[in-house]
Write a structure and sequence with these properties.
4-stranded antiparallel beta sheet, 20 strands, 6-stranded mixed beta sheet
Length: 233
């Protein structure tokens, strides 16, 4: 690695102009966390430890590689004197990052080392089901209040507000066209979240409310849905 090499003139015990190769000493820098798993949209901080702030700021130089290609942290985030920050992590940011570090304290006191940090994307998933599906196996009575309970279990998905009933969307499916019509709240239909589940309430359902209802989760790149058919008579 040529950029590690320094040639230091011999000022004593040799002829004028003589020089010798000088190889820096290995340094003891290491990443604070060398295996980072994160989710889309999150801020990722890579920090190196092993030297004091003054040394980092005044004497250190870091060259970064991303999957063996020269990489500039300023392009995708923010470079820091002892690492870098990715402000809005995306799938394409998942990679192996290598930092080549050279610390030049003086002409005769130099240090070098390399560090490696793996940043990977946590894959999100959603399991979704109608919790009270069995209740709708038989015909329901017109005018009697009814609730559809949708249970959503998330893995590696970070919601802004886990209690927001609009984390899922409700649809009525047209059996002939297959098209979905999104359901909005009215005086007769309510949408909320209670006891950890999402709920679609019918205050006084009528014959024309019969049909197939779908509960859908679609956030953070994770999509899942389930439906149930209900007949009122």
């Amino acid at each position: 690695k040529q950029w590690y090499q320094r040639r230091v003139a011999i000022t004593a015990g040799g002829k004028k102009g003589d020089c010798k190769d000088f190889t820096p000493t290995d340094c003891e820098v290491k990443p604070k966390n060398d295996n980072i798993q994160t989710m889309t949209g999150k801020k990722v901080q890579v920090r190196l430890v092993g030297e004091v702030k003054k040394t980092w700021r005044k004497f250190a130089d870091i060259t970064w590689l991303k999957n063996n290609e020269l990489w500039d942290p300023q392009g995708d985030g923010k470079e820091r004197f002892n690492g870098f920050t990715l402000r809005n992590f995306q799938a394409e940011d998942a990679a192996i990052y290598v930092g080549n570090i050279f610390i030049e304290m003086s002409e005769e006191e130099n240090y070098k080392c390399s560090v490696s940090v793996t940043i990977s994307l946590k894959e999100g998933s959603a399991a979704i089901d109608i919790e009270n599906r069995e209740n709708f196996a038989s015909t329901q009575k017109i005018g009697k209040g009814l609730v559809i309970v949708c249970d959503v279990q998330l893995t590696n998905v970070d919601l802004d507000n886990a209690n927001n009933p609009n984390n899922v969307n409700w649809y009525k499916v047209n059996q002939e066209s297959g098209e979905d019509t999104k359901i909005e709240e009215t005086d007769a239909v309510k949408i909320n979240k209670a006891k950890g589940t999402y709920r679609l309430w019918f205050d006084s359902p009528q014959l024309d409310d019969s049909g197939t209802y779908k509960c859908e989760f679609n956030q953070e790149g994770v999509q899942a849905s389930t439906d149930v058919s209900i007949v009122w008579a």
